[in-house]
Design brief:
Blueprint: E1 2-7, H1 12-25, E2 31-33, E3 40-47, H2 54-68, E4 74-78, E5 82-83, E6 87-90, H3 95-113, E7 128-133, H4 140-147, E8 154-158, E9 160-167, E10 174-182
Antiparallel strand pairs: 1-3, 1-9, 2-7, 4-8, 5-6, 6-7, 9-10
């Protein structure tokens, strides 16, 4: 499927913090750690690849570029991850700016397809997963593992977002970048 994500290939602080926490809970069963190249912040789905024409996709990208041209990069921090039934994840601060980016992407899709065809709801809780749950069981070992880590926050600077072609053939999301949209003109 096509989706808008923020990816973090160059975010060394985020990688280091993620690694510290993954080491702490890595010996526990029930989660699949996300390798550094696949860390991401899911923003907005578009459609399955066979449900969107190349022309519409290009126009959505063009509209997103126009809408985000002068949005400006944002720096946010992530702190201690939370344990959720689906994942162990970081919740970024500065969610107001991240929501503005997502809203602009949603509007870009609406510009091309109309508001009634924009997938997903407007409500959104930005997060960066560090591991996906793969079993049911008690959460307390994960809480304990996370509490054992003494690490400061990671600062992340988001300068662009990506339209990706997303797949999940294993227990991991992977992608190819279809387009990048800078947040600074």
């Amino acid at each position: 499927m096509y989706a808008w994500h923020a990816t973090f290939g160059d975010q060394i602080e985020l990688h280091a913090l993620t690694e510290r926490y993954q080491e702490a809970f890595g010996s526990l069963s029930g989660v699949d750690a996300i390798p550094q190249p696949w860390l991401h912040l899911t923003m907005q789905g578009v459609a399955f690849t066979d449900e969107v024409s190349a022309r519409d996709l290009a126009e959505i990208v063009t509209r997103a570029q126009k809408r985000l041209r002068s949005a400006g990069a944002v720096t946010f921090k992530v702190y201690v991850p939370i344990v959720d039934p689906e994942a162990i994840m970081f919740r970024p601060d500065r969610t107001d700016r991240l929501r503005q980016f997502r809203d602009e992407v949603r509007e870009a899709i609406a510009d091309v397809w109309g508001a009634n065809r924009v997938p997903e709801t407007p409500e959104w809780a930005p997060h960066i997963s560090s591991a996906y749950s793969n079993a049911t069981g008690p959460a307390s070992p994960f809480f304990d593992a996370i509490a054992s880590v003494k690490a400061g926050p990671a600062s992340v600077t988001l300068r662009e977002i990506q339209l990706i072609r997303l797949g999940r053939d294993t227990r991991l999301y992977t992608w190819e970048t279809a387009a990048s949209v800078p947040l600074d003109a």
